[in-house]
Write a structure and sequence with these properties.
307 residues; alpha/beta; 8-stranded parallel β-barrel; 12% strand; globular; Aldolase_TIM; DapA-like; lysine biosynthesis
Length: 307
């Protein structure tokens, strides 16, 4: 099903943040901090939160921590935002276990990345996603990020998977604009831009919205991009997207993982974050100061974008 403006209906909202997982100074899960951060993000315009994704350090959190995080954030935001739980692993059986646990904990949907390291061929990849989708009652967003997994979810595979009633969306980090358009043209899958620099471009082509890392610190900015575009202000939307590059580049394209830079900036702003878990290492002082400078320049005179 699509909306009147040719964007597929948003199964998890359209303005989603790939939320960091806050830790205490000793490295333990900080559920109070997660609740406070989630409250702030929803109040600032996020209608969906992705928990335990790449930015949420899913490879280094335990199964119990993942479930506890979903339950705590659900308690904090209630029904004001959709919660999408990252459950993808390199093991189909483990992924199914996490999917069922996320459903019990109160998630609204699942983010399922292509299994990494083993690099399954497309028929095995398709079977993996179908097994997860058959194992519980939640809708799935498939996470296509071959730069991390080593395996692309090919457009033809996505077209076939779109026939499954619980496979409803894609988080697109493929950097394949042609392939994305082919799937948009042939399916009703809701596409979410997973790379912040592509949010407006994909939305203009018919994507549903975005899953943003930079939204952890400026949750209102990309929502304003979509709102301007929907109101017919394409020039304004383009200006806002270009303006966001001042923060997108140092957070996402400066040689450090987005989790590291985002947590450094959140911490500098006095917001819940805490350390990253090894093997990641914290940003140094110079990097943090540069991030803070970029944030202040971006948000100067724009209260709606400030943390």
């Amino acid at each position: 099903m699509t909306t009147d403006d040719d964007h597929p209906s948003p199964p998890f909202g359209r303005a989603l943040c790939a939320m960091v997982t806050p830790f205490t100074g000793s490295g333990a899960l900080d559920l109070d901090g997660a609740q406070r951060l989630a409250e702030r993000l929803v109040a600032a315009g996020c209608d969906g939160l992705v928990l335990s994704g790449t930015t949420g350090e899913s490879p280094t959190t335990t199964d119990a921590e993942k479930s506890a995080l979903v339950a705590a954030v659900r308690e904090a935001v209630g029904g004001r935002a959709a919660l999408v739980a990252g459950v993808g692993t390199a093991d189909t059986r483990h992924t199914v276990e996490l999917a069922r646990a996320a459903e019990r904990a109160g998630a609204d949907g699942l983010l399922v990345v292509a299994p990494y390291y083993s690099r399954p061929p497309q028929d095995a990849l398709e079977a993996h996603f179908r097994e997860v989708a058959d194992a519980c009652g939640l809708p799935l967003a498939l996470y296509d990020i071959p730069g991390r997994t080593g395996t692309r979810i090919e457009p033809d595979t996505l077209v076939r998977l779109a026939g499954h009633p619980r496979i409803v969306a894609v988080k697109d980090c493929s950097y394949d604009l042609l392939g994305t358009q082919k799937v948009l043209a042939r399916t009703g899958l809701a596409y979410y831009a997973g790379c912040d620099e592509q949010i407006l471009a994909l939305y203009a082509l018919g994507a549903t919205g975005y899953v943003s890392t930079v939204a952890n610190v400026v949750p209102g900015l990309f929502r304003a991009v979509l709102d301007a575009f929907d109101a017919g202000g394409t020039r304004e939307a383009a200006c806002l997207q270009r303006r966001a590059l001042a923060l997108i580049e140092p957070v996402m394209a400066a040689g450090l993982p987005g989790t590291v830079t985002t947590k450094a900036l959140l911490g500098a702003l006095g917001l819940p974050s805490g350390p990253v878990r090894a093997p990641l290492r914290p940003a140094d002082r110079e990097t943090t100061e540069g991030l803070l400078k970029a944030y202040r320049e971006l948000t100067a005179g724009a209260a709606q974008f400030q943390a």
